[in-house]
Amino acid sequence: MSAIERSKKSTLLLIVLALSGSGAARADDLDSVAATLIERGLATHQAWELVRSLTVEAGSRFAGSSGDARGVAWAERTMRELGLENVRTEPVTVPHWIRGEAEVAILSPWAHDLVAVALGGSVGTPEAGIEAEVVQVSDLDALEALPDAAVAGKIVFFNRRMERRRDGSDYGPTVQPRGRGPSAAAKRGAVAVVIRSVGTGPHRFAHTGATRYEDGVIKIPAAALAVPDADILEAQLESDRPVRLLLRLTARRLPDAQSANVVGEVVGSERPEEIVLLAAHLDSWDVGTGAHDDGAGVAVVLQAARLVLSLPRRPRRTIRVLLTANEEFGLSGATAYGEAYAEQMGDHVLGVESDLGGGRVWRFATRVNEGALPFMRRVHALLEPLGVEWHGDAAWGGADLKPLREAKAPLADLSADATSYFDYHHTQDDTVDKIDPDDIAQHSTVYAVLAWAVADGDVEPRPAPAVPARR
Amino acid sequence: MSAIERSKKSTLLLIVLALSGSGAARADDLDSVAATLIERGLATHQAWELVRSLTVEAGSRFAGSSGDARGVAWAERTMRELGLENVRTEPVTVPHWIRGEAEVAILSPWAHDLVAVALGGSVGTPEAGIEAEVVQVSDLDALEALPDAAVAGKIVFFNRRMERRRDGSDYGPTVQPRGRGPSAAAKRGAVAVVIRSVGTGPHRFAHTGATRYEDGVIKIPAAALAVPDADILEAQLESDRPVRLLLRLTARRLPDAQSANVVGEVVGSERPEEIVLLAAHLDSWDVGTGAHDDGAGVAVVLQAARLVLSLPRRPRRTIRVLLTANEEFGLSGATAYGEAYAEQMGDHVLGVESDLGGGRVWRFATRVNEGALPFMRRVHALLEPLGVEWHGDAAWGGADLKPLREAKAPLADLSADATSYFDYHHTQDDTVDKIDPDDIAQHSTVYAVLAWAVADGDVEPRPAPAVPARR
């Protein structure tokens, strides 16, 4: 080959590279961009500062509350300040329930005021409260095994301790009586339900969370007891004397209210219609300030977008940040998103949610088509130095990704370390000081790397295998 | 010496030993008795079970409350069950204050409901509450340094963080604004006071505790904010916008009520009129169940007496267990004890109190006459294997030993490890699960060894050097 020929060939190569878009160059690019994201992401406490700002300015953000509205305003303003595009709020109708007061007291054998909260959605009691003897069961099966006479007219106490685990996997089994206990007990003639809080901490906070009444079954009031208070009730039951409880709740339902999903984007440079969705929920329960749940997730997805925006160029696909309304009390925002974007469900090349607190990400799972798995393993290799394990291709995606899941969109799970998450979850104690700034920096960095990799890569994760029905 | 002479001499020696009482024999005895006490004391969780029983059956025991009366009944019954002698209740008149509700909310720039409790003894607010701008100071000196115009009409926020220390020594400086802040602020024209809770924990509990109004100064209401809530108030003040607060307290004073000290004894075999006093307070604040403060101390001194009673013989001097009424809200029981036993103050050969929670004892100090120090160092040598350091002869004795201190009675400090004590102190979260059964076993064992050693020994700790006035 002559020098001229060689020169021509080089020029051609340059042209080919230029014409081919950034395909090959960008594939090589991933390692260095990931390195930049990791370096920047781990060096800053911006994610923690976002949670602090949200919780100081909006506080708790329960569906329909004034804090909910302040949260929406905060999110819209913050997205604009961070430089996201197409920032908009999308109206969502939400149920509006008021917790009111919870008074739970042991009347005999030894009088005690117990720390308790109403379960989310519980009906109230008559003004004077409900007084009855307590019958203790470990779970729904144990309730079924009791004769009717042991339950009728009683207050059922579901007393199951939740185990502390890194993956939070004892939440699923322990939470069953919270959701289904009141209707199950009502069918047997019980007059009310109390549960040991679904939580792992030793502190005197009651953990709320939604209960679900079955249609056609009488609605009986239900409350959660703080762990030390469940211990006291348990100790009194051990005396083998009848234990009588007073339960008074002023909870009530109001007409539906208006809230909003807040959406913003990093618009893709080449395939803007293809979407990598980063989701978290903006609402929280009313009792705390919703720092871990889910201010952390909000900060994580915003910070991931900020890190991507700090790069010299945009990814080819769009990264969309979705902050949903009312996850806690009925997935209103997720449902509204599914309806509003029904036509676009097929455009989601990946959905990932952050809703397990502000801990470090320690596990990565996907649900993508087989051909995309080698790319996902490559992304995992980038995350491994951050302490992230590979967990296979059976991701669930999270509650708010329901419409994507139903549409068989590709999903990922980036699991936060949940060892201490259920100490704070759904309690008054869920405040920003419980989040480690370095942990949430790692967490948001991992999201940024995954979002960038899929948004900028040639990978095609669609269609994903279907998700089997959960319990 | 002939065999007969030798035999005579041996017999004489035996007679001399017998006639000399148990002096020499008992001095040698101390090591083996201490070993028995330590072996038995560390092998049982009885002390923890006593706290559990008290907190399950009586619950909180605030002066004048129904729990206070249940606590007195529990103590009297338990002393009899343990085999103490001369068990009696001695009437004590106590102040009766009702906490009521505390509503503290930031109104602007960002509305927030704050977790708060009234300081003990606070006056209530008008029914609509008090609304005013907040002025933040670090301590009483910083308040004094402000111009009147910066304070008049404001709510003063005392914002000093308490440091975690094993000896709890940051409590003294941090608690000053709780006691003296309201009157100091009122003198400058403030309308109310809030303080950052005097506590070391990160959880969302407000720490109560007594405040003291000066005579002749207008009484303004005062509340403590939970640590995360003080953080939110601090963060809003950092915005440099005016921060307005609403404070509503329904606290009020009722007529004095009746309570009781509960006293029981292990009567000495030779000098029953000489007393080793083991003290703890039976009352607690109303917000928790008073497990660390001072159910632990109650259990420690009862368990120490039980361990001594398990020995084959009684000590020579009397060990008296004193469970006082209303330490928290004015030392009523200690004062009543000083009055009732004014003539016996000189009979106290030692006073020791347990009122720093149920942690392990790590330090031993005395206040005895110089001649008794070698014996006290010998007792320390017995305790050293349990992790107890020697801390010299400048013991203070504790709040409830005031009458002994004023009478220059010998005192000892057996300091509990207070590293986590101020996480729970004066909060709703002070429940029995926060006490480690092994720690309180060690704690009560140490008390048993000291009590036995002094009650059975020849040592004469009287008179003790005077205690210098405290700040």
Task: Describe this entry's structure for a reader.
Chain A is of the alpha/beta class and 471 residues long. Chain A is 37% helix and 23% strand. Chain A has helices at residues 3-19, 23-42, 46-57, 66-82, 140-145, 148-151, 171-187, 227-238, 291-309, 332-340, 373-383, 402-406, 421-424, 437-456, and strands at residues 85-98, 102-108, 112-114, 116-118, 130-137, 155-158, 192-196, 222-225, 244-249, 252-266, 271-281, 317-324, 348-353, 361-367, 389-390, 411-416. In chain A, strands 1-10-12-11-13-16-14-15 form an eight-stranded mixed beta sheet, sandwiched between helices. In chain A, helix 9 (291-309) packs across helix 14. The model of chain A is unreliable at 11-25 (pLDDT under 50). Chains A and B meet through helix 3, helix 4 and helix 8 of A and helix 3, helix 4 and helix 9 of B.
Beta-sheet strand percentage of chain A?
15-25%
Find the count of extended strands of chain A (DSSP E, 2+ residues): 16
Following the backbone from N to C, one meets helices and strands of chain A in this order, namely HHHHEEEEEHHEHEEHEEEHEHEEHEHEHH
**How many DSSP H or I helices of chain A?**
14
Greatest chain-chain contact: A-B, 32 and 32 residues
Mean pLDDT of chain A: 94
The largest sheet of chain A is: 8 strands, mixed
Cα distance spanning the termini of chain A? 68 Å
Strand order of the largest sheet of chain A: 1-10-12-11-13-16-14-15
> What's the shape of chain A?
elongated
Helical residue percent band of chain A: 25-40%
Determine Rg of chain A (CA atoms, Å).
25 Å
What structural class is derived from the secondary structure elements of chain A? alpha/beta
Q: Uncertain spans of chain A, ≥5 residues at pLDDT below 50?
A: 11-25
